[in-house]
């Protein structure tokens, strides 16, 4: 049996967490390949090391003295090293990094959290360190070159029976470090699991598995014991941040189960993510997730329904500005495009004026401060009246629904609400489909 184990930032936040990781690795000889993130938050008010590295880079870019930020980074790493009694010259590594700061690009700077952490973890576990820079190969378009990565990883597996591997980064063909998007250590683990044909991909974090809702919004949400890849993809895409939304593809391709586990409570069963759920859930939904930061663009034109290609022309203007579209609810002579605010923050008014100038609509309206909430579950397709229950639950809280979308597999109903209503809406949906079911037994 072969397990690829990935420990997120919360699992390596300090020396005490390192010890928990060692206990977990030593308790199971199948846990041979270990991926680590950079040290995460020790308390809710703390900073993730990766955030500090982005801050350091911002100081560098704007030519502001970065010594204070560097000092905090240095103290965090050396604090872990000292408490664990590690012998490597981390101070030398860190000072050489800082001295060389102006020669580095942002990706290299922000990748160092995982690099230092993996080096320390390797010494602590007595495993070799393998640098992701020498293994994870990116194409120039930032996708993964699977063929090259596989060849390099297999060579490392032939050389070592165990190793510690930094998540989040790799390199391009010209040797430059490239990082994934934030939270991308999960993708590194999934790639390793795929190439190594692991029996399971264990993803260790600070919650006992995937929860039915974000625990910062709903008080003590239930744990999900089993979830399918497609349900998970919907939830993680919509903001359930436990697992990066892109981490599903490499494991799904080989049908490798993902097991989400809690480093602070390793005895808990956690969540299994597989193609087919083994047990039928007691609840009509699997989970709820949501995100804020959306904006909608409403376009109305008399007789739009008979004007062939009108919607396509609006979408092609958005494409010119590289905007990706979340939803397009439509009426007969109108439609609304929902997109992420960050994609249009500098271009929205230019886009609107182009639509007005080139397509002469009768009305264009922009609304910002929108949140999307997805209610997800495979059982929803065979449970009649789900949408009705959802809308009634929101209605009871006086929340107006700005948009409704249901995917064609009927495993997801997404609603748009105004951001001030976001948390109340998530709680109302949870109460309707979970708390109420509990009370009914
Ligand atoms: N549905 C959910 N289930 C569990 N955790 C969730 C959910 N939605 C959001 N979270 C948050 O995700 C966090 C774990 O992800 P992350 O912070 O990336 O951990 P790590 O540092 O271990 O990679 C949890 O602490 C929790 O606050
Ligand atoms: N350290 C990186 C990558 C990562 O996966 O982190 P975490 O495991 O803490 O989500 C980040 O903060 O984005």
UniProtKB/TrEMBL annotation:
GO biological process: diaminopimelate biosynthetic process; homoserine biosynthetic process; lysine biosynthetic process via diaminopimelate; threonine biosynthetic process
Catalytic activity entry: L-aspartate + ATP = 4-phospho-L-aspartate + ADP
CDD domains listed in its UniProt record: ACT_AK-like_2
Group of enzyme by EC: transferase
Database matches in Pfam families: AA_kinase (PF00696), ACT_9 (PF22468)
Keyword Glycosyltransferase appears in the UniProt entry: no
SUPFAM superfamilies (UniProt xref): ACT-like, Carbamate kinase-like
InterPro entries per the UniProt record, alphabetical: AceGlu_kinase-like_sf, ACT-like_dom_sf, ACT_Aspartokinase, ACT_dom, Asp/Glu/Uridylate_kinase, Asp_kin_monofn, Asp_kinase, Aspartate_kinase_CS
Recorded metabolic or biological pathway in which this protein acts: Amino-acid biosynthesis; L-methionine biosynthesis via de novo pathway; L-homoserine from L-aspartate: step 1/3; Amino-acid biosynthesis; L-threonine biosynthesis; L-threonine from L-aspartate: step 1/5; Amino-acid biosynthesis; L-lysine biosynthesis via DAP pathway; (S)-tetrahydrodipicolinate from L-aspartate: step 1/4
EC numbers for this chain: 2.7.2.4
Positions that bind ATP: 6-9, 205-206
GO CC, alphabetical: cytosol
Domain ACT: 375-441
Molecular function in Gene Ontology: aspartate kinase activity; ATP binding
PANTHER family recorded: ASPARTATE KINASE, ASPARTOKINASE 3
NCBIfam families (alphabetical): asp_kinases, PRK09034.1
Role noted for this protein: Catalyzes the phosphorylation of the beta-carboxyl group of aspartic acid with ATP to yield 4-phospho-L-aspartate, which is involved in the branched biosynthetic pathway leading to the biosynthesis of amino acids threonine, isoleucine and methionine.
Identification of the protein by name: Aspartokinase
Organism per entry: Faecalibaculum rodentium
């Amino acid at each position: 049996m072969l397990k690829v184990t990935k420990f997120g930032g919360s699992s390596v936040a300090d020396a005490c967490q390192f010890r928990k990781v060692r206990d977990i690795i030593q308790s199971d000889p199948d846990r041979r390949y270990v991926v680590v993130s950079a040290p995460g938050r020790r308390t809710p008010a703390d900073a993730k090391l990766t955030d500090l590295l982005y801050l350091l880079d911002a100081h560098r870019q704007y030519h502001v003295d970065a010594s204070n930020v560097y000092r905090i980074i240095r103290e965090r790493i050396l604090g872990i090293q000292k408490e664990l009694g590690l012998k490597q010259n981390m101070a030398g590594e860190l000072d050489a990094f800082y001295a060389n700061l102006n020669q580095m690009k942002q990706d290299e700077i922000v990748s160092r959290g995982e690099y230092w952490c993996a080096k320390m973890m390797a010494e602590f576990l007595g495993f070799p360190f393998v640098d992701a820079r020498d293994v994870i190969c990116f194409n120039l378009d930032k996708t993964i070159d699977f063929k090259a990565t596989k060849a390099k990883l297999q060579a490392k597996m032939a050389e070592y029976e165990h190793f510690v591997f930094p998540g989040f980064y790799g390199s391009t063909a010209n040797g430059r470090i490239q990082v994934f998007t934030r939270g991308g250590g999960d993708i590194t683990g999934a790639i390793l699991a795929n190439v190594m044909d692991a029996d399971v991909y264990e993803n260790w974090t600070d919650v006992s598995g995937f929860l039915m809702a974000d625990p910062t919004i709903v008080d003590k949400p239930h744990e999900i014991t089993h979830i399918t890849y497609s349900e998970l993809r919907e939830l993680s895409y919509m903001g359930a941040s436990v697992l990066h939304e892109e981490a599903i593809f490499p494991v799904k391709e080989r049908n490798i189960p993902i097991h989400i586990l809690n480093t602070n409570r390793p005895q808990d069963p956690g969540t299994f993510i597989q193609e087919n759920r083994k047990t039928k859930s007691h609840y009509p939904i699997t989970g709820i997730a949501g995100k804020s930061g959306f904006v909608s663009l409403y376009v109305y034109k008399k007789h739009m329904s008979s004007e062939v290609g009108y919607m396509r022309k609006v979408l092609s203007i958005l494409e010119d500005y590289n905007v990706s579209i979340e939803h397009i609810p439509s009426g007969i002579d109108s439609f609304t495009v929902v997109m992420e605010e960050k994609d249009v923050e500098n271009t929205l008014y230019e886009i609107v004026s182009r639509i007005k100038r080139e397509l002469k609509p009768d009305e264009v309206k922009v609304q910002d401060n929108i949140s999307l909430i997805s209610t997800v579950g495979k059982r929803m397709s065979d449970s009649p009246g789900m949408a009705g229950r959802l809308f009634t639950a929101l209605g009871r809280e006086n929340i107006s629904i700005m948009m409704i979308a249901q995917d064609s597999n009927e495993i997801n109903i997404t609603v748009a609400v105004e951001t001030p209503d976001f948390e109340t809406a998530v709680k109302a949906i949870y109460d309707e489909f979970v708390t109420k079911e509990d009370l009914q037994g």
